[in-house]
Amino acid sequence: MRAFGAVLLTVLSHADEEVSHFCDPEIFPSCDVGARVGRDAPGLWTTNATRLAVKASRSSRFLRVNGRLPPIPHDHEFLLPDEVEAEDKAIISLQAGHDASIAISVGSRIQCVLELERLFEIRYFPEAVDNFQSNWRQALEIVRDRCDCDDGPCPQEFDYGIMVGFGLRLKTHFTWLPKVVELVFRVHRWRNVNHHEAHALMGYFSSPFRSALVLSYDGGGNDGVFNVFLARGQDLWRIARKPLNLGTGYHRLASYLPQVTGASEVGLVACAALEKEGDWIDLKYSFGDTLALGFAGKLMGFSGLSAPSKEVSPWIRRFYERLEHRQNEVPRAMLEKICEGETGAREVAASIQEEFARIVREVLVDYLAELERKRVSVEGIVLTGGCALNVVVNQQVRDTLTEATSDRPNPMKPQDVYVPPAPNDSGLTVGGVWAVSPPAGPRQKLQYLGFQLFDKEVLQSAAEERGAQRLSALGGVHFLAQLLTEKTRPIVAVVRGRQEFGPRALGHRSLLAVPDSPDLRDRMNRLKFRQWYRPVAPMIAEEGLEGVFGHKSFAPSMEFAPVVLEEVRERFPALAHFDGTARHQSVSKGDEPWVHALLLAVGNRTGLPALINTSFNSRGKPIVNTVAESLKMLDELADLDYLLIEDWLFRAPAGKPAISSEIPRAAVEWFSPR
Ligand SMILES: *[C@@H]1O[C@H](CO)[C@@H](O)[C@H](O)[C@H]1NC(C)=O
Ligand SMILES: *[C@@H]1O[C@H](CO)[C@@H](O)[C@H](O)[C@H]1NC(C)=O
Ligand SMILES: *[C@@H]1O[C@H](CO)[C@@H](O)[C@H](O)[C@H]1NC(C)=O
Ligand SMILES: CC(=O)N[C@H]1CO[C@H](CO)[C@@H](O)[C@@H]1O
Q: Which ligand lies nearest the alpha carbon of 248?
C-alpha cells in the first residue's frame, strides 16, 4: 500500500505541474486536481458537507503493479472482497441540467432512472424554467409510483439526496429542487457531487475493470470539460483537468455545415463572412445550445463520407485547442473549404472528426506512458462524458491502445475500453449515487433501468379493440422470426419491458428488420425522417460476432464501430454504414434473453443471427414510452408494418398508405459503399 501511495504521489505531482499550467483559478476556483473523487464539492447551498463518501484505503487488494492481471471477464461479473460492503442506504440522485434525470438506489444498487425527456416527450429536456416546479414534482411522483424496485416497494424516505454538478454553476431556480423533492419524499441529508466526478464514477463502477485510466470529456460541467482520473479498487483520483473543450468544439464546427444542420442560411452567413480579413474569422454562433446538441451525432455519420482535408485539419486542431478562450473565432481555411460546396463540406467534416480523435488518442497515450514510467498498470480504459458517444473514437482507442483485438494480449497493457450505456449527462445521477455508495459486488447491468410504459394500463383494452394477437400463442420468437423473414421484409416495432437507460434503443423500444436488402436502410431512415447518411445499426447475437467482424467485438450498448468483413457486407448490405463499419449492439443471453433468442431464430432462417434496429421514435422526439404514442406511429408511419407491445402483436391498419417506392435513389447510388 505504501509503495502504491508513493507511486500515486509521483503520478500526482506530475499532475500538479499540469495544474499550474492549465488550471486557471479564475475559471476553476476549486482547483482540486489530485483530490480523491467523491469528496464534498464546494456547494453553495449544500449545508452538510461532512462525510467522505467514497471509502478510502481499500484498494490494496487490487494492486497488480508488477504482476500479471487475471483475464477480464466480458460479462462484468466478478467479486470484490467480502468486507467491502456497500452501505444499505436509500439514495435519491438528481441532475437538472439538459438531459435531466432522477435515479434512486438501495445501497449501490440502482433501482431505476427516470430520464425526464422520456416522460415529457421533450428531447434533451432542456433547463427550461417554465413550470420548473410542477414538472419536477410530476417526475418525482412518477418515480414514487412507478419505479420497479428489486424487492417490492421502493423507498419513500432517503438517507441521502444527491445533487449533481451544482457546485459552481448554480442556476437560481435549481435551488428549489431539494424543496420540491421534499414535497414528495423525506430526505435526511443533501450532498453535492461534481459533474465529471459523477461521469467518472458511473463509468468506472459499471466497467469490468479493477483499475482504469478514466477520461471524462464533454462540453462543460461545474468542474471543467476534460478530466482524467486514475481508478484503482474502490478509489478514484482526478489526475488532470485540461481546458480542451472537444464537446462544444465538435458541435460548434458542425453548425457551419448546412448538410448537418439542415439550415442553409447559416452556410450563407459563413460564406459571406469570408469577406473579413485574417486567418481567424469572428463568427457568432447561430444556434441555441439545445439544438446544437443534436448536431454531434449527425456530424459523426456525415464525416464518414470522405477523407479529411490536409489543408484544413491543422486549423481544426488549433480551433479545438483555442476554444476555451476564443469562443467565436473560426478558421478561414475551413470556411473556404465549406463554401466550395458539398465535396469541401465532406472533407471538413472528416477533418473535424479526425482531429477530435487525434487529440483524444494523444492525451491517452501521454497518460498511459506516464503510468508505465511509474510502473502503475491499469486493466482498462474507461471513456465517459457526452463525447464518449463518439463511437468512431471509441473504436480507434480500442484498436490502437488496448489489447482487445490482439491474439496474445500483453498483461501489462490495458485489456480493453469500456463505455457505459449512458455516458452523457443523463447518466450523471448514477455516478451521484455511487459517490455515496460505491458498488462492492458484481457489476450491475445498466441497459434497461428505465420505466415500463407509462400508460400500460390501457394495453389490454387497446389490444382487444384492435384485434391484436398474443405472440406467445402464435409461437413466440419463432413466429416473429418467420414474420421478419417474409418476402416483403416487413419492419416491426418491438416495445417490451423496461425502457432502455441511455441513448440507444437496445431491443426494448426498437424498430427491427432483416438486413439483407439494400433498400431497408433507406426505408428505415425515411420512416424516421432521418438524413440518408445516418447509420442504421445491427443487433448481433454473440454467436454471430466472429462471423461478422472476424473477432468477438462485444458492444452491449452500441459503443463501438468495428469494420464489417467484406463478404458479410455483400450479403447483408443494410448491416454496415457507408464507411464499411457497423455500430452494432452485441447481444449475449445474459444481456437480454428474449432478444437473444429472437436473433438466433432469425439466424436459423437467414444464416446470420442479426437484425437491424433503430430506435422507436419519430422526428425530433425522444424514444417512445406510451402505448398511445406507439399505436399512433403504427397508424401513421407508411413503412411500419407491425407493432409488438409486450406480448401483443398489432398489425398496421388496412388502407394505410402503402410502402412508397420513392427511395432517395440518387443518394443510394451516389454513396454506395466504397
Ligand atoms: C451535519 O449533520 C450532522 C448530523 O446530522 C449535524 O450534527 C451537523 O450539525 C451538521 N452540520 C452542518 C454544517 O449542518
Ligand atoms: C443523452 O442521452 C440520452 C439518453 O440517455 C439521450 O436521449 C439524449 O439525447 C442524449 N443527449 C445528448 C445531448 O446527446
Ligand atoms: C432452427 O430451426 C430448427 C428447424 O426448424 C429448429 O428445430 C431449431 O430449434 C431452430 N433453432 C433455433 C435456435 O431457433
Ligand atoms: C438503427 C440504429 O441506428 N441503431 C440504433 C439502434 O438503436 C439506437 C437507437 O437509435 C440507435 O442509436 C442506434 O443508432
A: 2
Contact criterion met (CB below 8 Å) for 404 and 417: yes
pTM over 0.90: no
Per-domain residue ranges of the chain: 2-240+424-436, 246-351, 456-651
Could you tell me the fold of the domain covering 456-651? DHBP synthase (3.90.870)
Give, using CA atoms, the residue closest to atom 1 of ligand 1. Answer: 48
Instruction: Find the 76 Cα to ligand 2 centroid distance in Å.
Output: 24
Q: Is 126 in the pocket of ligand 2 (CB under 6 A)?
A: no
Amino acid 180: pLDDT: 83
Provide the pLDDT for residue 51: 27
Specify the DSSP class assigned to residue 149: -
The rounded Å distance from CA 592 to ligand 3 centre is 19
- Pocket of ligand 3, candidates 604, 606, 611: which has the most ligand atoms within 8 Å of its Cβ, to mutate? 604
Closest-CA residue to 453 (of 507, 422, 496, 493): 496
Closest by CA to 406, choosing from 417, 396, 416, 397, is 416
How many angstroms is it from 293 CA to the middle of ligand 2?
Answer: 9
Is 615's C-beta closer than 6 angstroms to any atom of ligand 4? Answer: yes
Q: Is the minimum distance from the CB of 500 to ligand 2 under 6 angstroms?
A: no
The predicted pLDDT at position 521 comes to: 62
DSSP H/E element including 342: helix 342-373
Ligand 2 atom at minimum distance from 296 CA: 14
Cell triple for residue 74? 466480458
Cα distance between residue 217 and residue 267, in whole Å: 28
Distance separating alpha carbons of residues 645 and 656, to the nearest angstrom: 20
What is the reported pLDDT for 468? 95
As beta bridge partners, residue 510 has 494, 615
- Rounded to 5 degrees, φ, ψ at 318 are -65, -35
Amino acid identity of residue 328, one-letter, is N
- Please identify, by atom number, the ligand 1 atom nearest to the C-alpha of residue 50: 1
Nearest CA to ligand 2 atom 1: 424
Bridge partners, 342 (sequence order): none
Could you state, in chain order, the average pLDDT of each consecutive group of 10 residues for the chain (674 residues)? 41 41 36 50 30 24 33 30 54 91 95 93 75 89 95 90 66 67 86 86 94 93 86 81 90 90 80 91 77 85 91 96 86 94 95 97 92 86 97 96 91 93 96 86 90 94 95 96 90 93 90 78 60 71 95 93 92 82 93 96 94 72 84 86 96 71 33 28
621 CA to middle of ligand 2, Å?
11
Cα(100) to ligand 2 centroid in Å equals 9
**247 and 195 in contact (C-beta within 8 Å)?**
no
Query: Which residues line ligand 3 at a C-beta cut-off of 6 Å?
Result: 600-601, 604
